[in-house]
C-alpha cells in the first residue's frame, strides 16, 4: 500500500505534466482545475519558466535569422522584459540561464530570447548590431553543432552571450564560447556525426572551389575523419545552409577561402596515414623509419596550409627533447606520428573557431570605443580591460600620454559595461556510450548549473528562514548534488585533479583508475560497471548513472601540440597568413629565444598572451582550463540577478508533437520541478531588506500615513502590507486561491510568498499606470489651454473675417459649459463656422496610380544607397535655407520689404515690438528653422514667417 506522501507526490507530478501538455500555468492550475486546454509549450512556476521542446519545424535551426519568421512568444518575452526592467531600475547585471538535458531546446529558446531582446532594447532585427550577431551565431552554429545519439542539432560549444545595456538601450554584444568536444573532429562516435560544417562544405562547394581545395574526388564515405560516424547526408539542405554560412562570413569580414582552406586541410589530414618501415644504414644495423601512405594527400594538405611538404612531414614525424639542457632530436614511430597528425587537426579546427569568435567580438559600432580592445573568447569584458591596461604599461613609456589615454579608455570601458544582460546556453546532461573525458566535463557543467539553481532557489531560502527564526509550513526536501561535484572536481582527491597528477607522472588508464577506486572506494556515487572493466567506472549524476571509459582520458587531457610542428607555421616558412595567425601567440613566445624548436609543447586550444609571456609552455591541461573558465563563469553569475528557464524535451525520438509522459517525468524529477512548485505555492522563496521593500512599494500606501524615517522602516512596511491585504480582500478571485499569500517580518528581511509578491507587483504596476495617465491628462490639458489663443488667431486668418471664429469660440464655450475656456473673447457675429479641410493632392496628368501590391526591391534600394553614400537608418541632413524667395514664377532676393500680418511678440512683452500692418525689412533667412531675420531699430529680430506677408513689388532677377 502506498504512503500518503507518495500519493501527494504522484498527484503533484500529474498536475505538472498536465500543465505542460495544456500550456496552463501551474499557479492557475492550483487555483482552478477546470481551465480550458491550450497548446503553448511553456508554463510558469512563479518566476521560473518551464519550456518544452515540441520538435516542430522552425526552418533552419542553425541560423538566428530564422527566428524572424517565428512569432513572438509571450512567456519568453516576459522574461526579457523583466530582465530589461530590473537592469534599468537597479543597474544590476541580469542573467537568463537556460538549463536542461541535451535536446531540450535550450539553443532554440536562446535564439528566441536574443531576437526578443533586440526587439525590446536593441532596435529590432534590422539593425546592424543584430545582423552582426546573427551572422556570428550562424557561423558558430555550423562550426559547433553536430548530430549525437540524442540530438540531431546538438550544440557542442557552450555560449554565454553578454549584452551590454545602457539606459535601457542595447549597447554591445559579446560572445563567450566554451569548446570541449575536440575528439569529435578526428573520431566521432559510431552513431554520431562530425561537425555540421564538414558535410555542408562537401555539399555546397562548386566544382571550381573543389579543385582549388583538392576535394574534387572526396565524399563522407572516403574521408577518414567522417566515415567512422554516421555518413548519411541531405545534400540539398546542407548546400543551402553552406551558402548562408558563406554569406555570414562576408558580413563578419572574414575571408571565405581562408577558412575553407583550413577546414579542407583538416579533412584531408585524416587520410594521411603514417606507417613504420625498416631500412639498413651501414654499421648501425636496422633503423626504423616512418613512411606515409598517401603522399599526394600530404602534399595537398601542405599546399592548403601554405607550408613546404617536407617541413610539414618533418614537423609531424620528429620530436625535440631537452635532456638536462641538451637538445636531442628523435624520430617518432608511426603511432606517435598519427597522434601528432590528429593533434594538428584538432588545433587547426579549435583555433579557427576561436579566431572567428574574436573577430565577431571585435566588430565596432557607431560611437563605440570598445572595438579598439582585443577580445578573447574565454575572458570577460572586465578582465579584458585589465589585460589591455597591463599591455599598455609594458609597451609605452611610463607616464606617457599614450598610457594615460589607454588608462582613460579602460576606465570608460569599465564604466560603460557595468550593466549587462547575459543569456547562458551551456551544455546539457548527456549519457553517450561510451562516455569520454569531454562528456565528463560536460556533465560536470550540468551538475554545476543544477547546483547554482539549487543554491539560489532552495538553499538560500531555507537557510535565510532558519537564520531569522522564520517557520514555514512547507518543508522543501531537495536533493543536494554537492557530493557529486566534489567527487569530480575537488582540489586534491577529485577525479580531474587525480587525472592531472597521472598525466604528469606519465601513467596509464589502468593505474589512474586503480588510484581512483582506492581513493573513493566508500563513495556512494562511484560504482564499478557490470561486468567489471579495468578501464571503466560509473558515476551517479543528478539525472542518472553514466558509464565512462578512461582509455583516452590521459591523452585527451594533455591537449598539447609539439613546438616542432608549431614552428612550421612561422612566417619565414609559411606563406598562408591565416594559418600563421592561428598560432600567433605561440610563435611569438617560441621565437622570443634563439633556440627553435627546443622541446616544449603548447595547448591544442588557443592560449591567452599572458600565459606565454615567458616563452615557456603552458602548464594547464584541458580539464584545468575548463575548470578555470567554469569558475569565472560562476563568478559572473553570482554577481548577477538570475532568471531561470528550465527546458524539457517532449520525447526521446525527436518526433514532432509527441508528448512522452515517462520521458518528461524523469526530467521533471531530475530538474526538481516538484520541489520548486511546493516552494512557490506555500513557502517563502523571496526576501527583501526593509529599506529596499519600502523604496519599491511605498507608493501603495497613503502618503500621509508613512513615517519615512530610518528608524520607522518596519512600521512603514507593515502599513504597505496592510493596504495590500485590504485590496486582496476586495478581489473574490484572489480570496479563493489556494496559493499562499502570506508574509513574515524577520530580523533583517521581509519574507514573501510567491502569491503576495505577484500581488505587490500587480498593484505597483496599476498604481504607476494610473499616475502616469493622470499626469498626461493634466499636462495635455494645460498645454492645450496655453496653445489655444495662437490656434484661434490662425483660424481667424484662414476664415477670412467671416465671423466663423467668433461662433467657433461661442460654441466651444457653450459646449464646455463655461469651464476652462469660458473666458475666451467672442465677436458679435454668429454665422456658422466654415469647414476647414485640406484639399487632397491630385496625381500628375498621365501618371498611372501606384499599384498597392507592388513591392520595392530592397536589393536595388540598398545598392542605390551604397552608390550615393546614403544610410537607410539615418535621414539625410536638412538642406540650408535659400538666399531668396520664390513668388509666382519669380525669385526675389534679400533684403525684402514685408508687412506684419499680426503683432509680434503676441504678448507685447518684448524689447522691440512689431505692430500689425507695419512695414519691416527682412534681411535674410534665420538659422532657426521657419524664421526670418528682420532689421528694426538697429536690432535683429527672428520672426516666424507666418507673421509676415510679402509686400507686392517688382521682381528682382538673380
Automatic annotation (TrEMBL):
Keywords: Actin-binding, ATP-binding, Motor protein, Myosin, Nucleotide-binding. Pfam families: Myosin_head. InterPro entries: IQ_motif_EF-hand-BS, Kinesin_motor_dom_sf, Myosin_head_motor_dom-like, MYSc_Myo20, P-loop_NTPase. It comes from the Eukaryota. CDD domains: IQCD (cd23767), MYSc_Myo20 (cd14881). Residues 1-765 form the Myosin motor domain. Residues 373-401, 797-856, 871-890 are annotated as: Disordered. The keyword Nucleotide-binding applies. SMART domains: IQ, MYSc. Residues 840-851 have a biased composition (Pro residues). One of its GO terms (molecular function) is cytoskeletal motor activity. ATP binds at residues 100-107. GO terms for cellular component: cytoplasm; membrane; myosin complex. Residues 630-652 are annotated as: Actin-binding. Residues 376-401 have a biased composition (Polar residues). GO terms for biological process: actin filament organization. Belongs to the TRAFAC class myosin-kinesin ATPase superfamily. Myosin family. PANTHER family: DACHS, ISOFORM E, MYOSIN. This is Myosin-I heavy chain. It comes from Diaphorina citri. The lineage of its organism: Eukaryota, Metazoa, Ecdysozoa, Arthropoda, Hexapoda.
Amino acid at each position: 500500500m502506498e504512503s500518503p506522501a507518495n500519493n501527494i507526490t504522484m498527484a503533484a507530478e500529474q498536475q505538472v505534466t498536465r500543465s505542460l501538455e495544456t500550456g496552463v500555468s501551474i499557479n492557475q492550475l492550483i487555483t482552478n482545475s477546470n481551465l480550458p486546454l491550450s497548446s503553448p509549450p511553456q508554463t510558469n512556476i512563479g518566476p521560473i519558466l518551464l519550456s518544452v521542446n515540441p520538435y516542430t519545424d522552425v526552418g533552419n535551426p542553425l541560423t538566428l535569422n530564422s527566428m524572424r519568421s517565428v512569432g513572438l512568444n509571450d512567456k519568453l518575452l516576459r522574461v526579457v522584459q523583466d530582465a530589461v526592467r530590473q537592469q534599468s531600475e537597479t543597474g544590476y547585471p541580469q542573467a537568463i540561464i537556460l538549463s536542461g538535458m541535451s535536446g531540450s531546446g535550450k539553443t532554440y529558446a536562446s535564439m528566441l530570447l536574443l531576437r526578443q531582446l533586440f526587439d525590446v532594447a536593441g532596435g529590432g532585427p534590422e539593425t546592424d548590431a543584430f545582423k552582426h550577431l546573427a551572422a556570428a551565431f550562424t557561423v558558430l552554429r555550423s562550426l559547433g553543432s553536430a548530430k549525437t545519439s540524442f540530438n540531431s542539432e546538438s550544440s557542442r560549444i557552450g555560449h554565454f552571450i553578454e549584452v551590454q545595456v545602457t539606459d535601457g538601450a542595447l549597447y554591445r554584444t559579446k560572445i563567450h564560447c566554451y569548446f570541449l568536444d575536440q575528439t569529435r573532429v578526428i573520431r566521432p562516435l559510431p552513431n554520431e556525426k562530425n561537425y555540421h560544417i564538414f558535410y555542408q562544405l562537401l555539399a555546397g562547394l562548386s566544382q571550381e572551389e573543389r579543385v582549388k581545395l583538392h576535394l574534387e574526388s572526396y565524399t563522407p564515405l572516403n574521408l577518414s575523419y567522417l566515415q567512422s560516424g554516421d555518413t548519411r547526408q541531405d545534400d540539398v539542405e546542407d548546400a543551402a545552409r553552406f551558402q548562408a554560412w558563406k554569406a555570414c562570413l562576408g558580413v563578419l569580414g572574414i575571408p571565405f577561402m581562408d577558412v575553407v582552406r583550413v577546414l579542407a586541410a583538416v579533412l584531408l589530414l585524416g587520410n594521411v596515414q603514417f606507417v613504420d618501415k625498416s631500412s639498413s644504414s651501414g654499421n648501425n644495423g636496422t633503423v626504423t623509419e616512418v613512411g606515409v601512405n598517401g603522399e599526394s594527400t600530404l602534399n595537398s594538405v601542405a599546399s592548403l596550409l601554405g607550408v613546404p611538404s617536407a617541413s610539414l612531414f618533418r614537423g609531424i614525424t620528429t620530436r625535440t627533447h631537452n635532456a638536462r639542457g641538451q637538445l636531442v632530436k628523435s624520430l617518432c614511430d608511426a603511432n606517435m606520428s598519427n597522434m601528432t597528425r590528429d593533434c594538428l587537426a584538432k588545433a587547426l579546427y579549435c583555433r579557427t573557431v576561436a579566431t572567428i569568435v574574436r573577430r565577431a567580438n571585435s566588430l565596432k559600432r557607431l560611437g563605440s570605443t570598445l572595438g579598439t580592445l582585443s577580445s578573447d573568447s574565454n575572458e570577460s569584458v572586465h578582465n579584458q580591460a585589465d589585460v589591455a591596461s597591463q599591455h599598455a604599461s609594458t609597451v609605452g613609456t611610463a607616464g606617457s600620454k599614450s598610457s594615460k589615454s589607454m588608462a582613460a579608455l579602460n576606465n570608460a570601458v569599465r564604466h560603460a559595461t557595468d550593466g549587462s544582460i547575459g543569456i547562458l546556453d551551456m551544455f546539457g546532461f548527456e549519457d553517450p556510450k561510451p562516455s569520454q573525458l569531454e562528456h565528463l566535463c560536460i556533465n560536470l557543467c550540468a551538475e554545476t548549473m543544477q547546483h547554482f539553481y539549487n543554491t539560489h532557489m532552495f538553499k538560500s531560502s531555507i537557510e535565510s528562514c532558519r537564520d531569522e527564526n522564520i517557520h514555514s509550513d512547507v518543508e522543501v526536501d531537495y536533493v543536494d548534488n554537492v557530493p557529486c561535484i566534489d567527487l569530480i572536481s575537488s582540489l586534491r582527491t577529485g577525479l580531474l585533479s587525480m587525472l592531472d597528477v597521472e598525466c604528469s607522472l606519465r601513467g596509464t588508464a589502468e593505474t589512474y583508475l586503480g588510484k581512483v577506486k582506492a581513493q573513493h572506494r566508500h563513495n556512494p556515487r562511484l560504482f564499478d560497471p557490470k561486468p567489471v572493466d579495468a578501464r571503466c567506472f560509473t558515476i551517479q549524476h543528478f539525472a542518472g548513472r553514466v558509464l565512462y571509459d578512461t582509455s583516452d582520458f590521459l591523452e585527451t587531457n594533455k591537449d598539447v601540440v609539439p613546438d616542432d610542428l608549431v614552428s612550421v607555421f612561422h612566417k619565414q616558412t609559411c606563406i598562408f597568413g591565416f594559418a600563421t595567425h592561428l598560432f600567433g601567440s605561440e610563435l611569438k613566445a617560441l621565437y622570443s629565444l634563439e633556440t627553435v624548436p627546443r622541446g616544449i609543447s603548447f595547448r591544442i586550444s588557443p592560449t591567452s598572451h599572458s600565459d606565454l609571456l615567458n616563452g615557456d609552455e603552458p602548464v594547464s591541461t584541458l580539464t584545468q582550463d575548463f575548470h578555470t573558465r567554469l569558475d569565472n563563469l560562476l563568478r559572473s553569475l553570482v554577481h548577477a540577478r538570475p532568471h531561470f528557464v528550465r527546458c524539457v524535451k517532449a520525447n526521446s525520438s525527436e518526433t514532432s508533437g509527441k508528448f512522452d509522459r515517462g520521458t518528461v517525468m524523469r526530467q521533471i524529477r531530475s530538474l526538481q520541478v516538484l520541489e520548486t512548485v511546493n516552494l512557490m505555492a506555500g513557502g517563502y522563496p523571496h526576501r527583501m531588506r526593509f529599506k529596499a521593500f519600502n523604496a519599491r512599494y511605498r507608493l501603495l500606501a497613503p502618503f500621509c500615513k508613512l513615517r519615512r524615517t530610518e528608524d520607522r522602516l518596519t512600521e512603514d512596511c507593515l502599513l504597505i502590507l496592510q493596504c495590500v491585504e485590504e485590496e486582496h480582500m476586495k478581489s473574490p478571485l484572489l480570496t479563493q486561491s489556494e496559493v499562499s499569500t502570506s508574509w513574515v517580518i524577520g530580523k533583517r528581511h521581509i519574507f514573501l510568498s510567491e502569491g503576495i509578491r505577484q500581488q505587490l507587483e500587480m498593484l505597483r504596476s496599476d498604481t504607476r499606470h494610473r499616475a502616469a495617465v493622470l499626469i498626461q491628462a493634466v499636462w495635455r490639458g494645460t498645454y492645450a489651454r496655453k496653445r489655444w489663443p495662437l490656434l484661434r488667431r490662425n483660424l481667424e486668418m484662414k476664415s477670412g473675417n467671416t465671423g466663423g471664429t467668433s461662433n467657433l469660440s461661442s460654441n466651444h464655450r457653450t459646449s464646455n459649459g463655461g469651464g476652462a475656456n469660458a473666458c475666451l473673447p467672442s465677436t458679435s457675429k454668429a454665422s456658422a463656422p466654415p469647414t476647414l479641410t485640406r484639399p487632397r493632392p491630385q496625381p500628375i496628368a498621365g501618371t498611372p496610380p501606384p499599384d498597392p501590391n507592388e513591392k520595392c526591391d530592397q536589393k536595388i534600394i540598398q545598392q542605390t544607397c551604397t552608390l550615393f553614400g546614403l544610410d537607410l537608418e539615418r535621414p539625410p541632413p536638412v538642406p540650408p535655407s535659400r538666399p531668396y524667395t520664390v513668388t509666382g514664377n519669380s525669385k526675389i532676393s534679400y533684403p525684402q520689404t514685408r508687412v506684419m500680418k499680426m503683432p509680434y511678440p503676441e504678448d507685447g512683452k518684448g524689447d522691440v515690438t512689431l505692430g500689425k500692418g507695419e512695414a519691416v525689412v527682412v534681411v535674410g533667412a534665420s538659422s532657426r528653422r521657419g524664421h526670418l531675420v528682420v532689421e528694426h531699430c538697429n536690432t535683429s529680430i527672428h520672426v516666424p514667417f507666418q507673421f509676415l506677408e510679402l509686400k507686392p513689388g517688382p521682381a528682382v532677377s538673380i
